[in-house]
């Protein structure tokens, strides 16, 4: 089966509009319609009901949808895996924006400086949410994930790289804790567990952020 037909089917099912699907796929609307007809002819069923601009999946289309998504994800993973056999010198590293900010950017800079131009080794640094990176790792689209929470999957091997020291800091040590505004770092459940030992449950943060680079200044 032509993966382009499945790709077109998924885009039409997402947008529920042939024109918008054509724009997203950089195709003409007639080309999108032709691909859908091809897929319907191959399967021997109608996948969409069309009434003016109202496009809906048929029962057959609803049944095909999860299989089409799985097939496309598998195809993308296969392409990535095959590409790795011919470009084995590529290595992708993923982490959340907060980890890149507070510790990994400096490490990546040192890695860049130590790299020999003739080595042919290429690094790719990816910034995304943890859930997205775990999915990429599971689909073999990411080589290394650096995270504060180890994925709970048996097929992954993990190694401890270091420790964080969590503490409360303020720029005015002479003031009482109750007089200070609380800035909270949102770094996931592991950090929240430790936070409960430092902050009262009724303590309301003035600002919540996932960025390690936030530096509030007095007005």
TrEMBL record:
Family: Belongs to the LysR transcriptional regulatory family.
Pfam families for this protein: HTH_1, LysR_substrate
SUPFAM superfamilies: Periplasmic binding protein-like II, Winged helix' DNA-binding domain
Domain HTH lysR-type: start-end pairs: 1-58
PANTHER family assigned: HTH-TYPE TRANSCRIPTIONAL REGULATOR HDFR, TRANSCRIPTIONAL REGULATOR
Listed name of the protein: Transcriptional regulator HdfR
Domain of life: Bacteria
Claim: Transcription is one of the keywords in the record: yes
Signal peptide boundaries: none
Record-linked InterPro entries: LTTR, LysR_HTH_N, LysR_subst-bd, WH-like_DNA-bd_sf, WH_DNA-bd_sf
Species per Swiss-Prot/TrEMBL record: Salmonella enterica I
Gene that produces this protein: abgR
GO molecular function, one term: DNA binding
UniProtKB keywords: DNA-binding, Transcription, Transcription regulation
């Amino acid at each position: 089966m032509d993966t382009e037909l499945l790709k077109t089917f998924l885009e039409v099912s997402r947008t529920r509009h042939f024109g918008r699907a054509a724009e997203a796929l950089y195709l003409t609307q007639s080309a999108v319609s032709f691909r859908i007809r091809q897929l319907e002819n191959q399967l021997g069923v109608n996948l969409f009901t069309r009434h003016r601009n109202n496009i809906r999946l048929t029962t057959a289309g609803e049944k095909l949808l999860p299989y089409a998504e799985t097939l496309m994800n598998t195809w993308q993973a296969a392409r990535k895996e095959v590409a790795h056999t011919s470009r084995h010198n590529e290595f992708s590293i993923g982490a959340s924006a907060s980890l890149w900010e507070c510790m990994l950017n400096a490490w990546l800079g040192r890695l860049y400086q130590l790299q020999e131009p003739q080595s042919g080794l290429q690094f790719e640094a990816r910034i995304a949410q943890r859930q997205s990176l775990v999915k990429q790792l599971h689909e073999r689209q990411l080589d290394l994930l650096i995270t504060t929470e180890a994925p709970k999957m048996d097929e992954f091997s993990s190694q401890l790289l270091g420790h964080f020291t969590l503490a409360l800091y303020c720029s005015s040590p002479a003031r009482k804790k109750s007089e200070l505004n609380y800035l909270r770092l949102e770094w996931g459940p592991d950090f929240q567990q430790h936070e409960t030992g430092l902050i009262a449950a009724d303590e309301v943060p003035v600002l919540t952020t996932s960025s390690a680079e936030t530096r509030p200044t007095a007005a």
